[in-house]
Amino acid sequence: MERKVYADHSATTAVRPEVLEAMLPYFTEEYGNPSSIYAIARSNKQAVETAREQVAMAINAKADEIFFTGCGTESDNWALKGIAESYAGKGDHIITTSVEHHAILHTCQYLEKQGKRITYLPVDEDGVVSVEALKNAVDQDTILVSIIMANNEIGTINPIEEIGAFLHEKKILFHVDAVQAVGSLPIDVQAMHIDLLSLSAHKFYGPKGVGALYIRKGVKLRSFIHGGAQERGRRAGTENVAGIVGLGKAIELATSELEARRAQLIPMRDRLIDEVLRRIPYVRLNGARENRLPGHVNFSFQFIEGESLLILLDMAGIYASSGSACTSGSLDPSHVLLAIGLPHEIAHGSLRLTFGRENTMEDVDYILEKLPPIVERLRAMSPLYED
Amino acid sequence: MERKVYADHSATTAVRPEVLEAMLPYFTEEYGNPSSIYAIARSNKQAVETAREQVAMAINAKADEIFFTGCGTESDNWALKGIAESYAGKGDHIITTSVEHHAILHTCQYLEKQGKRITYLPVDEDGVVSVEALKNAVDQDTILVSIIMANNEIGTINPIEEIGAFLHEKKILFHVDAVQAVGSLPIDVQAMHIDLLSLSAHKFYGPKGVGALYIRKGVKLRSFIHGGAQERGRRAGTENVAGIVGLGKAIELATSELEARRAQLIPMRDRLIDEVLRRIPYVRLNGARENRLPGHVNFSFQFIEGESLLILLDMAGIYASSGSACTSGSLDPSHVLLAIGLPHEIAHGSLRLTFGRENTMEDVDYILEKLPPIVERLRAMSPLYED
Amino acid sequence: MYSEKVMDHFMNPRNMGEIEDADGVGTVGNAKCGDIMRIFLKVEDGVIQDVKFKTFGCGAAVATSSMATEMVVGKTVEEALKVTNKAVMEALDGLPPVKVHCSLLAEQAIHAALWDYAQKHNITIEGLKPPVEDIEEIEEEE
Amino acid sequence: MYSEKVMDHFMNPRNMGEIEDADGVGTVGNAKCGDIMRIFLKVEDGVIQDVKFKTFGCGAAVATSSMATEMVVGKTVEEALKVTNKAVMEALDGLPPVKVHCSLLAEQAIHAALWDYAQKHNITIEGLKPPVEDIEEIEEEE
Ligand SMILES: Cc1ncc(COP(=O)(O)O)c(C=O)c1O
Ligand SMILES: Cc1ncc(COP(=O)(O)O)c(C=O)c1O
Ligand code: FES
Ligand code: FES
């Protein structure tokens, strides 16, 4: 029997059985509209409030600072567009990095078209944003800084606490895209001085199509989706009760298992990195060696192209990705790999392998067995490779 | 044993067992990210495309004109804000009605603050928008008309085909909020000359937290949620695969059972209306007598207040609502009831009963048994009622 | 959404009804929601002997009316004046935030009935202000 | 995403490799995605006797290279010129829309190799234009 190794947890994860079980009653039995008054709706409302507390607990916020959304991308859009508008009287300058997820980058590009000024901070060769560059970039009109906590493509972790302390002192709002971080890194919005934080359930074994935005009490943020009075009038639309329940359960489990998960994944990640670098020539690790997400690996193999690599891995039962999943429809090389200084043709041959709770060290061994001959085969085909 | 009668299908519906069954594999087995390249993701992508075809089929559109969203409210927001921006060069005038759902009304109010000009068309005492008023309202700067197909509060159906023909001739874009109509009324975006149409799965036995927007080919509509290249670059965010599959299955079932459902619900609706009007004094039917959604009833009982009525019905196992569910957090009387000319204190005593597939004529009998004494009891308490 | 006590008073309202020959009758409307409450008082020697209410209003309005009548009956006029909406809410184990204004209806209706009593009997009750048409209250906006 | 034929040619590419003493060699890069293809030709009496390719590119690029080499081998130089990317795609049962540009790589690489052959042998091939550095193609934007 061929082995199947799903190693694309940064793209999405399977819903955990416990999470699905918690969700199920809210499809067919507890289906009332939580905004209604009657008994079956009340238990729905209660379920949503419990999930709100679970999210708040996971990031050290208060329940009434948590707002449910339709996905991480919506949370990012809401935070940036909302602050840009609600604080337009204070300034028009937003700072972010050049290695954000497209949910942030494309929103910033949109805001630029609306006349906002955006600074894209550079990163070092590991992909870490420079706090010095940030300090030089803030000016009187800076209303918001948005920094990715852990990079989805290269796994690198940013110094969020340090940045938060600086911005807190400067009284500049701080948004953090923590979509990749939740469940992998400890998060404390108080200690880190975070004012807004985005997260998405399907990255930590919850369902797709539900996210949340943490909004610190006192932060003005106009609605992004206007309509009914759901989410205390700040995010309209009938609540996705089952999804929200799933998010709550998933974040509770992920946070309580955070240390165990790290202890499981870090050795797998480290072995894969060490062995690939040892066994395969002309390969580069992208992102920081240590300062990275626990299950996250990203290589560039010179002389070969990413899609071909993915197809052959797929044939071998290994599911990985090349850059972020949601850009694989596009042909452009990853903006993150270019930002850390990779030339175009090397950025093209990148491979992201991201482990999760159901992976084992045997999966790593299997990858180590299958990957080298595949790389060899593609290199033999390449006009760029002269062995 | 007490009977339980859920009569609030316009607020939300239970997911049908067949729909849940279709969704289940996409939580725990087929969990790949549809934007990825490997085999398990491909079957996900296929599932999303099948759902797209199911939606297209239901409204006589093409599959590539269907875009999935996070809810009906998002679809409404996207259509209005997107057109306002994408056609800003052509004009700044949008026409809608005074009886739209808050997803449209509050979005229009937001657009007014952005400097757009909005006309709110009046309706007649049945809640039908006047085509004459519309014709008088359009001017050179009118870029969009947005009309609710069937009203969520009073069930009245608008003359969409007539309006569509007029706007088509005038070359003005036509958006239709069909959230209440899908599964209850036949919809044909070609025959009705509809350019944009919003729908939401949980109103027709699909899951909450997933909707769709139909965008006629050729209509320019900027993205509302910016980010990855999902939905052909027009709606970012990892696809809610299970939800989308559920939407597709639900709309297919709802459309194929449309006639059967109407045949089931219309007699229930009519009996409830006739008998309540016969048995209870000082009661008014809100909305049109015939020209209304098949399972939809809305009464105003003079001298009594809606919430008290709902609580007592709840105690009797009857789940209904007063105005739209998502406004029940608010204390304002329904804008729809005021628009059809009800005085404030009568609007306050309104009751919406909406039947669906699991209801039977026995449920109607049960309501007819329980409702009159409850109304009587509350009237006895009322300082306004002098029997 | 409502506490058990609220539900109890809503389902089994105390003192619901009218007093034919009331010494004081007060009616107030709530500007916030349009609801209306009427209180009937029977006063003897400055002590409230009997009290009845009628309410066109939500569950909270009914329950606070009922509780308020229980709390003022047997009290002197001056003592009755001190039965605040806060005290009524506490006695009901609290109300949801959107329903706080409802409890004002009961307080104000009692005040209005006392005012009516004072007018009719030509006395002054210290601290009692004339009733306003519509009561309103400033709530914190989020 | 890919047809079975594409997958077959990708997994078992025909004519992959190099020709040591090729009569013509052509290399083209795709401006759209940065991928690169090289074609080697062996020509005798105006007939393509042998052809080999090397590709740094996606699955579609590999499959179209493989299919294109099969389609030109044994053909005269003039016939080979008529093997369009469209014909190659059809032979592969189609390509996804985003992958249409990849099939141009193969067509252009063959043209470039033929040009190189003509240059080296001092002949003119009717209808053959000099190869461009980077090929590009206008695609419909949604
Ligand atoms: C007419 C109408 N439009 C829009 C909506 C909003 O849909 P959703 O709650 O799914 O966002 C609703 C229902 O709530 C509705 O009845
Ligand atoms: C860092 C980051 N931000 C935002 C997102 C968007 O999340 P979603 O796809 O749930 O909208 C993702 C994942 O796709 C991500 O990795
Ligand atoms: S809402 Fe009017 S009294 Fe409570
Ligand atoms: S994507 Fe470059 S050749 Fe196909």
Automatic annotation (TrEMBL), chains C, D:
InterPro entries: NIF_FeS_clus_asmbl_NifU-like, NIF_FeS_clus_asmbl_NifU_N. GO terms for molecular function: iron ion binding; iron-sulfur cluster binding. The gene is nifU. This is Fe-S cluster assembly scaffold protein NifU. SUPFAM superfamilies: SufE/NifU (SSF82649). It comes from Bianquea renquensis. It holds the Pfam family NifU_N. Residues 1-122 form the NIF system FeS cluster assembly NifU N-terminal domain. Coiled coil: none annotated. Gene3D superfamilies: 3.90.1010.10. One of its GO terms (biological process) is iron-sulfur cluster assembly. The lineage of its organism: Bacteria, Bacillati, Bacillota, Clostridia, Eubacteriales.
